[in-house]
Design brief:
By secondary structure, this protein is of the alpha+beta class. It has 10 helices and 18 strands. It is globular, with a radius of gyration of 20 Å.
């Protein structure tokens, strides 16, 4: 268990740092020797960089950071219309010189209480949501999409201590893809549950989530599994996303190697249960990391399917940039191995404004009120941090 002094010292040093969940705890990355701010031009050079390694390489031989939603659209040729923009970077990656291993129970005594200058407001109210929902239902009936995710944002003006928030989040709602970034003028904290890419040598896997159920006193994992299996809407949504992720993987894998290794299991979180599958494949030898990124991002489970036409529908509906939401956070090692999540269940604080973005899936059997309420359930663990 890390000493409180260590986290206090790092947090008060005014140096940027990143924390990322591992199997047995967390890794903290700091002492950055390089900071790469991505744009639509330099991302190609960034992803095409080939690192020549010695036989041995250090744990710090990697770049860690995030791709925003907009830059991933541009990378695959999907153009966005003009939207409201807070001018947040499209992506940032850091080269750490120090990595500190932390145990799972993070203890930190914050001296900086958060300040909320304006309460949370939602950018789409229930009535507006229903209009968008009904419009997308027509698109589904006409065959333009089969499933689509409507994004809503909860925003306020606030000053936060991101490390304090992150430590609280790990105690209340620990997730396998949780991470935080603290930099000079922004911070991100996340309890993301979804892994998009885990690549080691030629082995690659993805773990799509499609299906959400609110927790109650009378619900447990076994009952949740029965609910998902017997719910036609949730089953359709899950099957479509799994098929799309299999197809995305098949674009970069050897024929016949993409297999579902764990199908339709339930994972438990603070306020909800998720319906999850695990898909694995073997990469073709000539495939590069840029090919994998373009095939897999943005993650289909948080967009809908088919991916490209659904992205176009979403982008022309939404009035403001998603920024980090439904982008990807993770690392690329100098030997080509990488791990990336999908940035969901995340809070972005930029220039003392906080935003929490969430989305729920719409299929032909969906109900507008249920999907609107599901969005709040997904945001609740982060909203509760401000209490």
């Amino acid at each position: 268990m890390i000493k409180v002094k260590s986290l206090d010292k790092i947090n008060n040093s005014n140096q940027p740092f990143v924390i990322y969940k591992t199997k047995n705890g967390f890794d903290l990355y700091t002492d950055f020797s390089k900071k790469i701010i991505l744009n639509n031009k330099n991302i190609y050079r960034f992803l095409n960089t080939e690192y020549r390694l010695k036989k041995k390489y250090k744990k710090t031989d990697l770049l860690i950071g995030f791709f925003g939603y907009e830059i991933l659209n541009n990378l695959i040729g999907v153009k966005l219309p003009k939207q409201n923009n807070i001018n947040f970077p499209k992506g940032i990656f850091y080269k750490p010189e120090t990595i500190i291993t932390l145990k799972e129970h993070l203890f930190y005594n914050s001296n900086n209480s958060h300040k909320v200058f304006k309460k949370f407001k939602i950018n789409i109210n229930r009535n507006s949501y229903k209009k968008i929902f009904d419009n997308f239902k027509k698109k589904i009936r006409s065959g333009q999409t089969y499933q689509i995710k409507i994004c809503t944002k909860y925003k306020n003006k606030s000053k936060i201590d991101p490390l304090d928030f992150f430590c609280k989040l790990t105690r209340s709602n620990l997730a396998p893809e949780a991470f935080m970034i603290k930099d000079k003028n922004f911070s991100i904290i996340s309890c993301s549950p979804e892994n998009l890419i885990t690549k080691k040598n030629l082995s690659i896997s993805t773990k799509p989530i499609a299906g959400t159920l609110r927790k109650t006193k009378n619900m447990n994992k076994k009952k949740a599994l029965i609910f998902f299996r017997n719910n036609l809407k949730e089953t359709k949504e899950h099957n479509m996303i799994v098929d799309m992720e299999r197809n995305d993987l098949s674009r970069v894998c050897e024929p016949g190697t993409v297999k579902i290794k764990k199908e339709k299991s339930v994972e438990e979180y603070k306020d909800l249960y998720h319906y999850v599958s695990l898909i694995k494949g073997k990469l073709r030898k000539e495939v590069k990391n840029i090919d994998i990124i373009k095939a897999m991002m943005p993650g289909g489970s948080v967009i809908g399917c088919p991916k490209i036409s659904t992205l176009n529908l979403l982008n022309h509906q939404e009035k403001e940039n998603r920024n980090i939401y439904t982008g990807s956070f993770g690392f690329i090692k100098y030997n080509g191995d990488m791990r990336f999540n999908i940035i969901i269940r995340s809070l972005l604080n930029y220039k003392n404004f906080s935003e929490i973005s969430v989305a729920s899936g719409v299929v032909i059997d969906s109900n507008a009120n249920q999907e609107f309420n599901e969005n709040f359930i997904k945001a609740k663990a982060l909203i509760d941090l401000f209490k």
